[in-house]
Specification:
17 helices, globular, Growth Hormone, Chain: A, about 425 residues, single chain, mainly alpha
Length: about 425
């Protein structure tokens, strides 16, 4: 009987999963979350649509995707990321290719909601990529998720500037069609590499397909453990079903806290530039502040993800929620005599947005991997609706008060309430089976 000699673990294939998820998350951020702002003024100028009607289209597209999120999450648990990303990339690409042919609001709405909403906000939402990574990582889960969520910075540095340049030079229709073609191309390149789980390959050490937990016992660098924060205590994952998770109060405390965070994000994603301009901030300074926050967010997400593998995610989430509240407070107070607060906002906001990898990792640590896709997608669908509330609330506040200051202050208060909720999180226990 031949005895197999143990092989030295090679490159871990989980990092290929991270790279593929990163690319598709970058597409998500460019094709909707941060990139849609490129098309707002051209659409308003060509068709005469109001900012409210354009914001409604944005909100409906996101809402439709969130409604489909739990369904896609269940499909992920069964089939994995490859098929979900293929469907999402195809639909989003088709949507952006068809949008330039729209010559009225209803045609635009149909393409943007039914195709882009299903593809980008449903299938290619952050839940899909984080679920793929959660299957492949346990020891370095927060770090891997931190790298993944820097895709938003990649969109800001790569795709969105290209979209903006194409819009300025050739018009918004060329930019939209190019975005659709890019979506199809990236899908064809990435989807074939997206494997579901490492277990079928765990004996293939020579191929670098070993489980993350078996890869290394090397301790983290000493300096990462010197902060006065409670340490992360690894424990065997408890596999919850979606029904069991929905019966846990910690699930709803966590989801509500993140909902309040996304209200603040919805306010800024659509209205942060108008707020700065109405408060007398020079357009060049306003643009530089936005770029600064995105640039800071890239190392912040990696650093926070790294720390999340060593320290309590609950405490780190709480600190970042407080940081987000302070950022919006500074943003609300920006004015002709306090214009320097724009830099305070940019720095604190860039750090506060690093919550994303910790959110995804907390769900995986708490509820396990088996049903992670459906559990995380359900939580995200509730929480991400805060972006709709924030965006529409800011539009209404401006129409009513002629200023965004009140809504910014409410957003800051929401971060504070969310911080309290995060600190109240207990450790959920499995539901006793009757």
């Amino acid at each position: 009987m031949a005895i197999r000699r143990p092989q030295k673990p090679g490159f871990y294939y989980g990092w290929v999963i991270v790279a593929g998820a990163w690319i598709m998350y970058m597409l998500n951020q460019a094709a909707f979350t941060w990139g849609f702002t490129v098309f707002v003024n051209p659409l308003a100028e060509e068709f005469g649509w109001s900012r409210m009607s354009i914001t409604v289209a944005w909100a409906l597209s996101l809402t439709w995707g969130l409604l489909l999120g739990p369904w896609f999450g269940k499909r992920f648990d069964r089939y994995g990321a490859r098929s979900i990303m293929a469907v999402g990339g195809l639909l989003s690409g088709l949507g952006w290719l068809l949008i330039p042919t729209a010559h009225n609001y209803w045609a635009f709405l149909a393409y943007f909601v039914l195709l882009v909403g299903t593809g980008i906000n449903g299938a290619l939402g952050p839940s899909t990529g984080s679920a793929a990574i959660a299957q492949w990582f346990k020891v370095r889960r927060s770090l891997a998720l931190g790298v993944y969520f820097t895709g938003s910075g990649g969109a800001g540095l790569v795709l969105i500037p290209i979209m903006s340049a194409l819009t300025e030079t050739y018009g918004w229709r060329v930019s939209a069609a190019s975005l659709g073609a890019t979506s199809l191309l990236l899908t064809v390149v990435v989807a074939p590499f997206m494997r579901h789980k490492p277990e079928p390959y765990e004996l293939s050490l020579e191929n670098g397909l070993t489980p993350d937990a078996a890869m290394t016992n090397k301790p983290s660098p000493r300096f990462i453990h010197r902060l006065p924060l409670p340490r992360h205590k690894p424990h065997p994952e408890r596999e919850f079903t979606l029904a069991e998770a929905l019966r846990h109060m910690p699930f709803w405390l966590f989801t509500t806290a993140i909902f309040l965070r996304y209200v603040g994000m919805g306010i800024t994603q659509v209205h942060q530039m108008p707020h700065m301009l109405t408060r007398g901030v020079d357009p060049v300074i306003a643009t530089a502040a936005l770029s600064l926050s995105l640039i800071i967010n890239i190392p912040s997400r990696i650093a926070v993800g790294w720390m999340g593998d060593a320290y309590s995610k609950k405490w780190l989430l709480n600190l970042l929620a407080i940081t987000g509240g302070l950022a919006l407070l500074a943003f609300a107070m920006i004015g002709p005599t306090l214009s320097e607060l724009v830099w305070v906002y940019a720095i604190l906001w860039g750090i506060a947005l690093a919550m994303l990898p910790l959110q995804a990792a907390w769900v995986a640590d708490t509820y396990g991997r088996m049903h992670y896709g459906s559990i995380n997608a359900t939580s995200n669908s509730f929480a991400l609706s805060g972006r709709v509330v924030g965006a529409l609330g800011a539009a209404l506040a401006y129409d009513f008060f002629g200023s965004y200051t009140v809504i910014m202050l409410l957003g800051a208060a929401g971060f504070g309430v969310g911080a309290v909720m995060l600190m109240l999180l207990p450790s959920p226990k499995p539901v006793a089976m009757s």
